[in-house]
């Protein structure tokens, strides 16, 4: 799936168990059916054994639908389940070291907030960048805002796909038009909705119409 990294970026779902109204698998399946193109499993407080178990279940589901599963932060879990890739932040393991550990065939995503960080991540072997927080978000307490102009500058500076993250939903999506991004990453805009399928479907349509 590595060759299709850009194709996987338009609607990138990051999981968060706090919003679940049914099982994680059921919720993610509905989101994929609605149009999600990539899934990142984020588990900040889950026991390692259950993290691995969840990752295996989601990997099977994602592959049934021919989309990649990315593991947030935990390189060991990614390697254990042989997920499609891993996403790391600036305060996690160095991207260059992660690339050495996972090899050339797995997807590496890196969170960045400046052009300098973006260029370094690209040089260190990142396949795509997550830039944010673009808008105010209640999903990540420590998220600092990134200006839309900075997002544009990052898109112009690098040759790899860029996705915007942080507080993105249908009400502010249009503000990202013309930035050069390859997609958006969302959490509550899908996970917290009563109708997950419909939320994903509507977002996918708007991303296609307004952004790509």
Short description:
The chain is α/β, with parallel strands linked by helices.
Descriptive account of the structure:
- The protein is of the alpha/beta class.
- The protein has one domain (2-211): TIM Barrel (Alpha-Beta Barrel), CATH 3.20.20.70.
- Helix content is 39%, strand content 16%.
- It has helices spanning 24-34, 48-64, 75-81, 95-102, 115-123, 148-157, 188-191, 196-211, and strands at residues 11-14, 38-41, 69-72, 85-88, 107-112, 128-131, 162-165, 183-186.
- An 8-stranded parallel beta barrel has the order 1-2-3-4-5-6-7-8, surrounded by 7 helices.
- Strand 1 (11-14), helix 1 and strand 2 form a beta-alpha-beta unit.
- Helix 1 runs parallel beside helix 8 and helix 2 packs across helix 3.
- The longest helix has 17 residues, at 48-64.
- It starts with 10 loop residues before the first strand and ends with a helix.
- The mean pLDDT is 94.
- One of its GO terms (molecular function) is thiamine-phosphate diphosphorylase activity.
- Condenses 4-methyl-5-(beta-hydroxyethyl)thiazole monophosphate (THZ-P) and 2-methyl-4-amino-5-hydroxymethyl pyrimidine pyrophosphate (HMP-PP) to form thiamine monophosphate (TMP).
- 2-[(2R,5Z)-2-carboxy-4-methylthiazol-5(2H)-ylidene]ethyl phosphate binds at residues 137-139, 167, 187-188.
